């Protein structure tokens, strides 16, 4: 039997103003409940720690970022050292690069996900890679992780540590 998808809660939240939710991974039995509850608490703590305005956070989506941001100044250094000037560049450039990585380095798939023309995505990815201190082809995991930190906490670079 497949585990339930916690993202259905996100759709329900769209209609409810001023409501936030953090959910853990689904589990079975008492231990599964405890584990899921701990995940949800960690997701909630992450959102609070990073000052995010997200209304829905699934721990499975942010587990890596949680590990990276336990120390906010360390997370800031990681983002700045990885992305360089890209960290403060146009959001569209960062989103294009992140989507490109998430789509398996396919500009065609990234363009479809972003509802943009393939050439536009190629230009944005190219420009983002020029600005990034670490090139996506050299370390895609670090670049993607740094971009995800910025996606969750866009102010992490501009607010003093």
What would your notes on this structure say?
It is a single chain. The chain is mainly alpha-helical. It folds into 2 domains: 8-67, no CATH class; 72-152, Arc Repressor Mutant, subunit A (Orthogonal Bundle), CATH 1.10.10. The protein has 8 helices and 2 strands. It has a two-stranded parallel sheet. Strand 1 (21-23), helix 2 (29-49) and strand 2 form a beta-alpha-beta unit. The chain is globular, with a radius of gyration of 17 Å.
What is the element layout, followed by pairings?
Layout: H1 8-13, E1 21-23, H2 29-49, E2 56-58, H3 59-68, H4 72-83, H5 91-102, H6 107-114, H7 118-131, H8 140-152
Parallel strand pairs: 1-2
Helix pairs in contact: 2-3, 4-8, 5-6, 5-7, 5-8, 6-7
List the keywords.
mainly alpha, 2 domains, 161 residues, 8 helices, Arc Repressor Mutant, subunit A, single chain, two-stranded parallel sheet
């Amino acid at each position: 039997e497949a585990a339930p998808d916690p993202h259905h809660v996100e759709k329900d939240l769209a209609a409810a103003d001023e409501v936030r939710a953090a959910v853990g991974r689904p589990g079975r039995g008492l231990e599964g409940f405890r584990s899921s509850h701990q995940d949800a608490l960690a997701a909630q703590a992450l959102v609070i720690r990073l000052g995010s305005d997200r209304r829905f956070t699934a721990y499975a989506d942010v587990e890596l970022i949680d590990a990276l941001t336990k120390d906010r100044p360390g997370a800031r250094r990681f983002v700045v050292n990885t992305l360089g000037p890209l960290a403060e560049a146009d959001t569209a450039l960062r989103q294009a690069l992140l989507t490109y990585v998430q789509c398996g380095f396919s500009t065609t798939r990234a363009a479809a996900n972003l509802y943009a023309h393939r050439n536009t995505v190629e230009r944005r990815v190219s420009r983002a890679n020029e600005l990034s201190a670490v090139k996506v082809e050299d370390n895609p995991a670090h670049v993607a992780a740094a971009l995800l930190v910025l996606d969750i906490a866009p102010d992490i670079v501009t607010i003093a540590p």
